[in-house]
């Protein structure tokens, strides 16, 4: 477009040009009751922040999305196109005109308090957890009985901490009725590993092979599986809430809840959450290290369909990638992200990827323990691996779909294959 043509083009208006962008990319967080500090639903709300919005989108700080566009396509990609960024900038430069309200698209249907459809069931931790103003908080557990009289398939789920500012991350585990995990631990009341007198139970609080219903961190998306896929909760199961709280100078309490939408009919495929993790590296990250590298491998024990990724690191986390290492040792990168401790996102493949048994999956993480890392609490000290945010973690969660009849334990049974099998 020539300068003359550009000069004749009408300036973008809020109702016709900006509101559709906000609805598709911003209001999932920027509306009343959600994680963002300010709503961007009306003209009045948005225009008063126009300059700041322009700065944030031009710097690609907002919407938060950290995947390298060279690798993979993702169904939940909320990043803006160059054209959308240009439209917002032009609108701000024209002094943020409102335009004709009749040009506004229909408002999206948001279920109050949820980013999934109205849940069929909401389960809340029975008792609140008291969070101190300062200091470390040991991982806190609360076991919640589902009281399901029949098996349930969960197609969508979303976690809601009541004190989001204090939740670093959380995992909800599915404990089937035949599981011995944490049997003997208190039901319906918060506890930590240190509260448990039985050494066996204290050990179990730190390790389990049971399946996960949902993993949560600030910014992560709810689970919404396509028709024909769902998570499985056997009848009479419990949900075990594992909560990692951090302090922020103000005392608080939290009663996290989870909302679930059940599949309308039994699906053909079950979703399992797996992980590539380095939990106990014996070598700490040296002080001042800008690119400390950690690599983990794992081979799939059986065929599966790869659905999504959720990388997890702490304050020194810099980059994370998932790869397939092919038999000829060539590397195929599936996801590469620049990490932000305060926005730990999930990345859902636009086209699920079929993987054969024996596929070599690789996760690589890089850490910045130098003064260049603005989030680094102590660049002069080595960083050990552990639960607290000043420690480090390296967990590459990923979700796969398998036949509905296969549970997590069965999936990890490796079958001997003949040399001629392909």
Q: Secondary-structure map with pairings?
A:
Layout: H1 3-8, H2 14-25, H3 43-47, H4 50-58, H5 82-93, E1 121-124, E2 129-131, E3 140-145, E4 152-160, E5 167-175, H6 199-204, E6 212-216, E7 223-224, E8 229-233, E9 238-245, E10 252-254, E11 257-262, E12 269-277, E13 292-299, E14 304-312, E15 317-325, E16 331-338, E17 347-355, E18 360-367, E19 395-403, H7 408-411
Parallel strand pairs: 8-12
Antiparallel strand pairs: 1-11, 2-10, 3-9, 4-7, 4-8, 4-11, 5-6, 5-9, 12-19, 13-18, 14-17, 14-19, 15-16, 15-18
Structure classification: alpha+beta
Q: Total helix count?
A: 7
Helix fraction bin = 10-25%
Low-confidence stretches: 1-6, 418-422
Secondary-structure element series: HHHHHEEEEEHEEEEEEEEEEEEEEH
Tell me the number of strands.
19
Average pLDDT reading: 92
Strand % is 25-35%
Task: Tell me the span between the first and last alpha carbons.
Answer: 54 Å
What global shape is seen? globular
What's the main sheet like?
9 strands, mixed
Query: Using only CA atoms, what is the Rg?
Result: 23 Å
Describe the structure.
13% of the residues lie in helices and 31% in strands. It is α+β, with helices and mostly antiparallel strands and 422 residues long. Helix 2 packs across helix 5 and helix 4 (50-58) packs antiparallel against helix 5. The longest helix is centred in the N-terminal third of the chain and has 12 residues, at 14-25.
């Amino acid at each position: 477009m020539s300068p003359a043509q550009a000069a004749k083009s009408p300036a973008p208006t809020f109702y016709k040009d900006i509101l559709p962008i906000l609805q598709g990319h911003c209001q999932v967080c920027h509306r009343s009751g959600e994680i963002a500090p300010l709503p961007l639903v009306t003209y009045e709300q948005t225009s008063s922040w126009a300059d700041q919005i322009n700065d944030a989108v031009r710097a690609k700080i907002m919407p938060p999305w950290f995947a390298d566009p060279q690798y993979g396509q993702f169904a939940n990609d909320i990043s803006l196109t160059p054209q959308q960024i240009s439209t917002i900038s032009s609108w701000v430069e024209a002094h943020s005109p409102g335009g004709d309200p009749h040009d506004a698209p229909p408002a999206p249907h948001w279920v109050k308090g949820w980013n999934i459809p109205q849940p069929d069931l909401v389960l809340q931790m029975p008792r609140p957890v008291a969070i101190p103003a300062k200091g470390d908080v040991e991982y806190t557990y609360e076991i919640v009985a589902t009281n399901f009289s029949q098996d349930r398939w969960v197609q969508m789920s979303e976690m809601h901490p009541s004190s989001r500012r204090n939740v670093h991350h959380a995992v909800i585990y599915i404990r089937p009725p035949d599981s011995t995990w944490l049997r003997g631990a208190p039901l319906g009341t918060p506890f930590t590993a240190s509260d448990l007198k039985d050494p066996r139970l204290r050990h179990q609080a730190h390790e389990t092979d049971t399946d996960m219903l949902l993993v949560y961190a600030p910014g992560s998306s709810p689970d919404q599986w396509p028709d024909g896929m769902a998570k499985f909760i056997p009848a009479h199961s419990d949900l075990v809430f594992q909560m990692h709280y951090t302090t922020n100078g103000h005392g608080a309490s939290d009663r996290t809840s989870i909302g679930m939408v059940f599949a309308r009919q039994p699906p053909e495929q079950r979703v399992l959450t797996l992980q590539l993790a380095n939990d106990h590296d014996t070598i700490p990250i040296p002080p001042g290290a800008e690119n400390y590298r950690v690599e983990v491998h794992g081979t799939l024990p059986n065929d599966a369909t790869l659905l999504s990724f959720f990388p997890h690191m702490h304050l020194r986390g810099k980059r994370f990638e998932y790869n397939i290492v092919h038999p000829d040792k060539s590397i195929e990168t599936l996801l590469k992200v620049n990490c932000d401790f305060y926005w730990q996102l999930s990345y859902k493949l636009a086209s699920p990827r079929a993987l054969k048994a024996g596929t070599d999956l690789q996760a690589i993480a890089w850490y910045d323990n130098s003064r260049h890392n603005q989030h680094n609490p102590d660049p002069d000290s080595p960083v050990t691996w552990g639960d607290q945010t000043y420690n480090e973690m390296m967990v590459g969660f990923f979700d796969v779909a398998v036949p509905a009849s296969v549970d997590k334990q069965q999936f990890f049974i490796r079958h001997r294959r003949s040399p001629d099998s392909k």
